[in-house]
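Quality-control log, excerpt.
Job 1 of 2 completed; input and output follow.
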Amino acid sequence: MRISRSRSVLLAGAVAVTLSATALPAAFAAPSSTAVISEVYGGGGNSGATLTRDFIELANSGSAAYDLSGFSVQYLPGAPSAGSLWQVSALTGSVAPGGRYLLAQAAGTGGTVALPAPDATGTVAMSAASGTVALVSGTTPLTCKTAADCAADTRIVDLVGYGSAVVREGSGPATGASATASVARAASLTDTDDNAADLSAAAPTPVNAAGETSGGGTDPGDPGNPTEPGTVRVHDIQGITRVSPLDGKAVTGVPGIVTAVRTTGSKGFWIQDTAPDADPRTGEGVFVYTGSTAPAVAVGDSVLVSGTVDEYYPSATTQSITEITAPRTTVLSSGHALPAPVVLDAAAVPAAYVPSADGGSVDALPLEPSTYALDLYESLEGTRVQIADTRVTGATTAYDEIWVTVEPKQNPTRRGGTLYSSYTDQNTGRIKVMSLDATRPFPVGNVGDVLSGTTTGVIDYASFGGYNLQATELGTLTDRHLQREVTRKQKGGELAVATYNVENLDALDEQTKFDTLAKGVAVNLSSPDIVSLEEIQDDNGAVSDGTVGSEATLKRFTDAIVAAGGPRYAWRYVAPQDGQDGGEPGGNIRNVFLFNPHRVSFVDRAGGDATTAVTAVPTRKGVTLSVSPGRISPANEAWSDSRKPLVGEFRFHGKPVFVIGNHFTSKGGDQPLHGRYQEPSRSSETKRVQQAAEVNTFVKSLLAADKSARVVTLGDLNDFAFSPTMSALTAGKALKPLITTLPANEQYSYVYEGNSQTLDHILTSPGIRRFDYDVVHINAEFADQASDHDPQIVRVKVDGRR
């Protein structure tokens, strides 16, 4: 099995090697009169090739057998980089005097002719155009990367560089190798230790130890193109767990009907067996991976597929995709009806999400598709399915993906989404829909719309989102006309405080982004008195040149707010140290306060900078800040490589109000809900809990000096209302989370993988007794969004009571 393999095409080729004692520059050794590398071919299975595999042929011009026990043939790319390694293929047996020895290498997806039965088989995917092959005494990988260094390695018996190979013998490499041509020695097997002179290009002519050519014999490692099914069926490949019992093994003549073809990205096609077994755990569909080569099959073809079974893990924490790789496909006939799709609806999907493995891998657990939703989806991997009239729970993305639910009554939000309300109550009906039809525009939908009619395709798996439906037939989108919300204007005696994550805003962004975000503040939020912003970057964004100021960014933003009909906001922030606050490299992300000076005043107290901690200062009239604006314990390890909270002291109608703007560390690194480890680890949570505790401690210091202090803590906390982060932030009842004051179906501000959830929060201290709180939905539910977060606002009634 492989994890995150490079999705590049296998350059198939064969190398014919004549065993030559030491085919290095003549200054180092005499040419061989016995074993040499006689032929090298790296074009097998490539487009235009006839042979299906790469090969290396060895020959022996001596009078005695040449023993290959403990020897290897090794391959190096033609222009090796620092990270290039010699790839080793072990040999056995011997080369008879005057005989040949054939080493078969990797197969490609092209070609129609099998090699003669090889004397040894490797898995190296050689380049058709350029590379180096060495016959080596031993199986330890070579380390040399230059011709001179390799000449000094006495383990090398013979060496052939072809194309533009850096490592070669003599004046230059052998030339002319291609998808249709090998480089080979003449019949005399002349070896002068000069690859350019000794080998020439011609049509490949592999010969094995039995003297067979590609016109006869059978390669047991290369089943060619059988016309009768083999003994293995798709359900044998899929097995009863998430990992195939045949992982890493070759299969021959697996029958199926082509149900879908993917011609972009990781190319390939799906086949499905029309004679399923009776076990619901064993899937009947499988993906045939052809790499960068477009599949030469069509939907409805009846095929036999030979290749190697592989479990491909998109990442170390995801589940795997069972595939047949390095395939050779025989099309028996065309135009067949496709297997009837499995209907996915509320009746079919179990209520439980996934079995527990106590944090370990679920790979080896027998599937229980009638009990767990993810087990059901896994049992249908590669199988045709159909959904109908599904509610959109995640808007169309820039990658032409849309999330729907097949369980319309499962945790619906007021506006049509699906609410994520606890770690243990997963939404089992969510599934991501993508399209395999590049000729048809993908529907652009918002949360609450309906993908009407039937959508049919095959179940696949990806690192982002997990199980998805690769649609061959898409339903039509029914627009439910979701509207962006506009909150009410604050009254004269209400202080309006908002939080808004503006998603890496910097002065180099397009004006349209500034204008859309500005409209959100001026119109949708009705011009709050204070806006705590997250993700304001320095003035040149990702450019890393020491710039830390955000004046130009904030000038453009506040100008755009005025143009949208809002007030002329002033701003305060503390510039971070260069490169110390995480976020996009070079961006120097920070929290910022905007405020309307006609409605609220900012209390400036000098001394606040990137490294100075703000403290609560008790006075006879209450509590003040040591610096304003300031940062909470910036040197604390909790804030290492993370945004530091910004604290400011404001006055509204002469009354002090303390605002703490936050942007806690992200969830990056957490294991996915749909991953192989269950229950998933939330490793990022540890740091957020530490950060929440620091903010809680600071709030308590304000309340210790004045128990009636009005404190508003808000921002992108990157965690849920039910999380340990929130428990740490509210400990001792220092703060009240306002999201929980809303009806349950309105408690969200962010949509991720079809789940409506809350990462942004506003919390208030006990001194704030009267408030009106609102999440203003303008982004997260829409395909067209200025930010992936919805802003929030609280209107606080500030009177004479302390």
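Job 2 of 2 completed; input and output follow.
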Amino acid sequence: MMRTSKLMLATMLSGLPVAMAQPAQAQVAPQEAQAQASGIQDIVVTARRTEESLQTTPLAVTALGDVAIQRAQIVSVQDVQRVAPSVVISTGSASTSGFAFVSIRGQGNLQPLIANDPAVATYIDGVYIARPSQGLTDLHDLQRLEVLRGPQGTLFGRNTTGGAINILSKDPVDQLEGSLKGEVGSYAYRDVEAVLNVPLAEGLAARAVYDFHDRNGYGSNALLNRDVGDQKSHFLRGKLKYESDGFDVTLSGDYNKITDMGQLAQTAGFNPLSFQGPLAAFAPGLAGAIHTKDNWYTTYAGGLARPTTNPTFATLPADIQAKYSQLPFDKLIAYGFSGVVNIDIGAHKLKSITAYRYSDSDGLIDLDGSPAPVLAVFGGAHSESYSQELQLSGNVTDRLSYILGGYASRETGFEYSRSQIFGGLIRNSFGDAKNTTKGAFAQLYYNLTDSVRAVGGFRYTWDGREVVLHNQQVLGLAPNAPVAGTPFGVNCNLVNPDQAPTATQCNQTQSKNFSYPAWNLGLDWQASEDIFLYVATRGAAKAGGFNIRAGSLPAFSPEKVKDVEGGIKASWLDNRLRTNVALFHTWKSNAQVIVNAVAPGVGVTQYTQNNGDTRVWGAEFEVVAAPWSGMEISGNLSLLDGKYKAGSISEVQRITSATPLTGCAAAPPTAAGVPRYDCTVDLSGRALTQLPKIQFSIGATQTIALSTGDLILHVNYAYVGKQHFNPVVASDQQTDAVKAAYAQENALGETAGYGLLNGRIAYQLKEPNIELYVYGRNLTAKKYLSRRFSDLYQTGGLGVAVDYAGDPRVVGIGMRYRFGGQ
């Protein structure tokens, strides 16, 4: 396989210079000549819930059509990072592998589960995808992919403080067409995709796509002698569309199942201060598993340990005991159904979007990535949601148009995190959740002159959040079984239970209602046929929620974002050069931040609280050029920076000291009577998470027309700068050794900048309609990290940090046969 990979790589790298060396001599096919005659082709987008030209849309948006999506090798949401500025998408989590942690312009969320929402919304065919596990599903047979940057709260609703990813699949059309695709590649990769579009009657057509892919693991588990980081996926979508005079109806359903044998979690480092006394026995296993360049794709994780020496273990039910021998795995099932109705009412249009979404994710990860049984987590989430949206749009006069509507959704589900610490008994954090949302919005557009337009929009949202916690200290024991160290000395580990725990009851109900506005005010000016300028200010919010893991903590409130953005979109040189620029400044208040702590009666946990105000500012540049026949060059660049407002964010660090600490308040002493003090630390100097200061991408596609078809060569290089995932600050009163541990946690929570080179060479035959291609991703075999998890190194109490290695170099070949159509 290695020899084959090298041959494919050599073929690609040798072929790319051909396109660059002799561009002027390449002949142009008739269809290509027609496209080049008019320069760069325009793209129609729905970034404002209605169709309009990309170049006259007054917001920062990146849009790719189906051909560009295929050439850029965008097969999942994770790949969007390579084609849009200010967008970073991280994978790898302390739960299941099927999560996409999306951040745009520094607005993200690294813990969006059932009771905690993301900061970037994902929409598929107009339907909001509530859970990030559904956001990482496969992408096939797409019409267009849009990335909207900046707050989008007026038209897209809550959880769009960073922006939105708008995915549009192809609708059925009134002609017989379809395609068959097959691919093979590195790591025994194989993929089969079939698309079929069939006209059924006048105005009625159906379209279906099925894809299956499978590959071996990118990494290996040296302890268990098996692959890790593998993936198997089944994807299916079907659509039925009926069109008649004045209305159309589209029914859609999709299903995706993704499984693997565990994440590639690796020991980045361990804190010697934590592994002393009885815990020193675990240190050699950790030290032997430290992640280095020499074992970049190797893990030593062992899964769950069987604590047979614990007398309570023998009293657990057989099915619970069996869980202690499980090996790492991940499973994601996501599916949904929707119905979209469009009705013309004279000069007005009514749209209805009705949807149901389901997701279920489960996984077991040996989080420390070592043979030592430090921390294993069996976690997951289940979600079912129903939503209904109505939109009414149209023209009131020649100068005034509008869009208004309402939205309602109801989501129910549960989240669980079963953790085993140092080989002990499994602790069970479990909670049911119900999330309801209602919203009403309106946006008006008024042409002040023939070239100047004003926009004003407003939305108000009402959220209801309810959780019922069932947290237990030992999985498998009755809630009222005696267990030391919990608030009431029983297995039910809740501070304020609804009633006294019984053999079957362990419940704590918490509920909270929130309401908040969103707005949009802007002006745009078509200065000339080729120059478009805009300025806008917007506000949006990320919903409040609850901490299911931590138990008794109160709800956290919505975080609110407002911004100012100005931009210019321009075409030059007879539409052969397009430059789009956006400048922005964002203010966030009441920020939802993750806290890692050892909570009394709970143990090591993470929770979210409101703490701090941030400022983020930046510039984004996008360029597309068609310098000669058959060539298209595209690139983007984002320059970002941000900080916390001075004095707006702090935390309390509890320090054990035999002598009083200046500036700190006395706290309860240790069990041995040693004094402790609570010291308040100003955190406003720490870095913001998922905010690379520089990010860029450049790509080129050369089409060479030959007598029997077209040779298409594409290359792309994408770079993302350094990112922080767990910035921490030590109190001035901490000892030098603890300060050094904090500094090491910062280092272990930071990913270095990296660049990835991707390429694709295709030959498109004229007859039959067959495309043959070779492709490669990460062609330079760059060793990089997609994420780091140092949350437990010092402040989280367990003394470990974890790496998640990015994908290695992969190459492959494929063939696509298309039939029917025009």
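Post-run check on job 2. The CA atoms of residues 251 and 760 lie 35 Å apart.
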